[in-house]
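Two quick folds needed for the group meeting slides. Do the first one here.
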Amino acid sequence: MKRKVLVLGHDSQSFLSVIRSLGRAGIEVHVAWHQPDSVALRSRYVACAHDIPSFRVEDDLWKARMIELMTREKFDLVIPCHDSSIAPFQQHRADLEPHGRLYLISDEAYGVLSDKFKTNELARSLGLHVPREIVVNNLSDLEQAMTGFDYPVVLKPRGSFNPGDLASRHEVRKVYDQNELNKAFHSLADARPLALQENVLGRGAGVELLMKSGEVLLAFQHVRLHEPPRGGGSSYRMSTALTPELLDASVQLLKALDYTGVAMVEFKVEPKTGRWALMEVNARFWGSLPLAIAAGADFPLALFQMLIEGRTAFPGHYRVGLCCRNWEADAGWLIANLRADRKDPTLTTRPIGAVMAETVKNVILVRERSDTLTLDDPKPALHELAKLTRGKLSAARRKLSSALIRSRASRRWAQSRLNRRLRSARRILFVCKGNVCRSPFAEAVARERLAGLEVTSAGYFPVPGRRSPEHACAAAAAAGFDLWAHRSQVLTEELVRDADVIFVFDKENYEQVTRTYPRIRQRVFLLGTLCPGDALFIDDPWGLEAETFAECYRQIVKAIGCLAEKIPMSERSPVAVRQLSKRL
């Protein structure tokens, strides 16, 4: 009987690599929880794509559909590939495991490795070198902790996600001055406490392992050739021989957890001295997986064979010196590398000559590979290229559109159209990205200022029920409005259809709304259009200081004051705009 697996994932690297690895082995591959336009769906090895509702804390529909699918298809194994699919399965494994075999690590290992603070605590207890860090909860802690650090420093969240909000990812931030530090700290308000960590110089390296009960079955190592100057995921990597010290540190860490499964342990290594420091552990399939498979370390297939067939012996050799590139990300890296200051030792830059020579050499020696392009499965790469081309054309159109929107003639034309619409308007909708900062405040002001009209707000960020940040609530309270009880609402076709006028705040809002709902373009206006001579865009204050929220809200109050003057008197509240402005 043919084996069958269900693979859950988003990105084009690990998700597509797992699909290809298992598909090439003759295993029937089904997928779910994928993005609608994922390049992985074009793979010849995808037998079936299933539509399963997204995970939501307050709704178990996703779980019921997943159990129904597992029961019907009788998968040999279900493999979640990314953090936001692993977390729900770890949390609900008791409900899901009776219906099929899941690839999940132990709860103990997950509890430690999904928490960067606990990972570092374990590493220190084993005598492994980790960056110096101090946990901070508030600005006072941060100011005190900074007395022992020099810039740049790293702000690291405890985990990549909050359990109740898997759509919002918490990124590690490297900051170079006080202003950047304050902005980063405020933008990570939902992720606190944070670790203030010293910046470690060196090149990124990863040790990739398949283990069973703490014993190594398969091992691989790579180094990063291209990584963003200020840190982040690499776009070009090379396979290297295993370094005994890094392998030993990785095994010690995972053996302490009696680890079973795949993992990639990340290090920073100083090239001249060989000194290293542990960065983090990816207790799942990783972004550089295409390189390992191309070099001969086929981790997805080995994992399947270990779990389902009981196999424990795997080839211990792989090709060293093979390179693998993510072409889209590497194009961005090349631009960033060209612009970066090569005299700054804290930036991971490369000489242009070395980059060109490296590429030519790897092509001549036939050791250049692509994350997405393979001869046996070319369609994902072709689709990726088409998406990239469309993206570049869209960016050019957006620049032209922005220039036209900003022009005086265009603004006067928009004001004329808006005035005509407002004469008969009865329903007004305010839209920003998340519906937690600008649009809910605009709704609150408009409800008071525009009595008689139906006013609501929404955001296109696809997570409902989010709270407004503390600075937003405080700035709104100073103006006499309550955002503490507000919860975000996601923009829907019904909301758009029912609105007579839709106000957005910046270029991104305008482009997102008009691109998603092209038929209502004539009803969408920038709120800044209402006040001639003022800024056209009202920028998003999310993650910034309190003063920025106050200034943003002053702009909104003024704009709605101008709006009130355009609405027929019978629809206007007697509250004066100057009274609202004084509150701010």
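Then this one, please, same format:
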Amino acid sequence: MERADPAALTSRNAADGPPASGEAPARRLERLGAGAAALILFLIPLWRFLRVAAARFDYPFDLEWVEGGVLLHAQRLLTGHSLYAAPSLDFIPFMYTPGYYALVAAVLRLGGSGYAAARLCSIAATLGTGALVAWTARRAGNPAPLALAWAGLWFASFSLSGFFFDLARVDAVLTFVLMGAMAVLLEDVRRPRRATFALLVLLAVLAVLVKQNTVVFCAALAAGLAAASGWRRGAAFAAWTAGALALVVLALQAGSDGWFWFYTVSVPRSHGVEWSSLVDAARAAGLGGLPIAWLALPGLAALARAGGPPPVWRALALLLAAAFAADLGMTGHQWSFDNVHMPLHATLVLAVAVTAPALLAAIGSRRGAVPAWLVVGLALQVWATGFDAAGQIPPRPAREASQRVVRRLAALAASAESRGGRILAPEFPYLLAQAGLRPCFHAAALSDLLYASRHGLAVDLSGLLPTARSGLAGYLRGELRLPPLLAPAFDRSRAAPLGDDAEGWPPLVGMHDRPQRLVPGRGVQLAVGTPRVTDP
């Protein structure tokens, strides 16, 4: 016999409410008005996000300077090359697991090359996260307008994440997979089944393959299962997940000659944590930017005081703790940006959506009603997270400038390659592919290796030494700090920008200026060897 869930029963009663025929006209009007206001507070943040995403999903240049590198990773998979190999002029992988690149490669195979297909993947994942929040909130007993308002709270965090919701980056897909795992966990708390257990294992494995720091969430999922259904179920989940991941890691290690572990574990581990940034990180993660989401904490307390099922409280508390641990770990990283807060924001929103019915019941709110104070709080949150949408949309001159730069680059390359040289564009290497040229490594990936080398990891960068000494052409941002191994090959005094400063060329996200072309140095002799390179 299936066991009853007191919280679920209370939530259903709260959602149902009294029949409309028994309501006084004034109360019915108040209820309808509050519901309409909650619906509007869902539509406004959603519209803000969709307006920006629809206007820039096909922008033919990086909106953020790593996007092009992501596309090169996906194209490398499409051409049958390994993602993880020795560093070379042609390619250096980012320090992430391959799941997201495999997804983008599949989307590119179906939808064609370019930024648009990859960005549409992130847009769909962001919308999927909002749908999961609304669905889970409704399952927890929220009235339909309030369930949508909690999803609106997720879309309202668009600006808090640095406007990464629609970019060709791992963050949107990672957040969607994690929210799917959390929703399945809560379903399993209500009714343990083999199907939900198997789906939870699958989502946990996928999350780690998308980004390796989600092992923290896997531990929280195992603990949540143990709290809900006993230690045997939690241990079984941990064993199945660990076993599946071990098989995948062994396969990736064998297929990459050991380079997979080097890039995804050794390099990020050598970076360590910037402890001085953790206080600001906690504030930016939600303490200051998403205050209404902290209703999850009194909601959890209300569940406990009202005699609700302890597994719900424990599962949500463990998920929040895991989200904070992963967020702080990523924010303390040397190159972190606001996008690392996306999983934490989504977890906070999910937690407040699930606990809201218990909180409202504990303070005497009418069943099925959306209190006016909550509508006002949501309205203040939507207002506080507003932004100038036009400022996040590249102007038409920027589109034209990117296309002109690709044509100019192709002309420069034709001249260089006729002399046996090649073009290097490590800041924006996807420009090379757009110009029909041979791509090169990405500067961000090289920076990861240089930083790891400075902190004790042995890194062999001899593969970056150009093999063709004469006619080597370079295309680098003027102020880029080149490693000592490559710096002598370029004449920085003759740097020339590719594009007019008035044309709006720089990416909208991040602090990187427009690229500059560097003329190769003359009479440069580079010794070939296996030096241990450190950051200049």
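Slide caption for protein two: The radius of gyration is 26 Å.
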